[in-house]
Specification:
about 10% strand, DUF3800 domain-containing protein, six-stranded mixed β-sheet, DUF3800, globular, alpha/beta, three-stranded antiparallel β-sheet, about 375 residues, 17 helices
Length: about 375
Amino acid sequence: MITDYLMNKEEIIKMYKSIDPTLDFNINYNFYYDETNNCRTLRIKNGQLNTHKDKDFVLGGVVVEPQNESEIENSFWLLREKLKVQPVLKEMKFKSICPGGSDFLKCIRNKKLHDFLSWLLEKKVFIHFSMLDHLYYSIIDIVDSIDVNPFMERDIKTFFYHFIYTNTEEFIKIFDKYNYPNVGVIQSPSFYSEIIECVSTTKTVGILESMWKELLINELKDGIYKEPIFLTNNEDKTLIKEYYGLYLNRIIFFENAFHSFDEESEVQKELKQLELNTGKQIPGNYKFIESKSNIFIQLSDIVVGILGKFFEFIKQMPMNKVLDDNFSVSEQYSFDKNQQNGFDLLKELLQKSYKKNGAFRNMSGNNILAYKFEKIIDSKNGF
């Protein structure tokens, strides 16, 4: 993976900038990171996913220009006081603001979150994130193995994801039966036949979904007897084994920046092992540190906490509603005054950050999720 990143970095950046010329990967800012929804290993266990399909991995936090750090640090303690964080607590975390069990709608009603977001907006602080959609990332090898038209590849993956998301339980039964992703050459035609049947019987809403279904089924049928190059020699029922690729992506693509990650022993081991296995050295522009000793990691904990809730929220929105030109999040969910305030503050912070640099966002999800995100935050940036 490190070899691929190093070899393809400039090519990938060129592709990104062809979509948005304002993206800047050469900045020398300081990035700080925490994570949320890390299930360690995503697998099928007892016929089910071992984590909820809406709880996606988010790595991110705050990003600041080095010359502004002292000013931000000096005002951090006033923020703690305003948020009424108990002095005995050594660090401020997301749960200090939003109690455990709070969903997105409860979080954005919380005055402490309002104060936190307002503080970030007042300071020279921006937010950044990399998001990995667990379910989407788990199923793309099924499409990659049948070698679809490259111009349609992302659309086909999105259509496929949509039907699996809609009918998850039935598709997981098929994955479980065939030990996906370790299906094997012999079982592959039967596996794809059952996948096609499951797509066919999944209920659609409206003409658009019916068109998606027809296109997807045709592509799957065309590839049913192709060699399943990505569905062999894998661990039975193990869908995602690690997340270090997202860490590596930021380190390499923002090579002139410095990256400070909350301590994560498994990722640290993977990065060291990667260097040994490939003989390639990862840039030295990063470190892992204890969150208790760094206020920016603590701020990042809160940022990824609310982003994790936000993505969970928008994934559950009915696509047919979002596609409506008159769709309004506030009206759809009957926001009260406090919820509207919290939502507006979060949206303003996201817009502020992407206006600064669209490259602060890295979504490895699908077209549907990207569309929802763009429409909801009224963003013109990102990729």
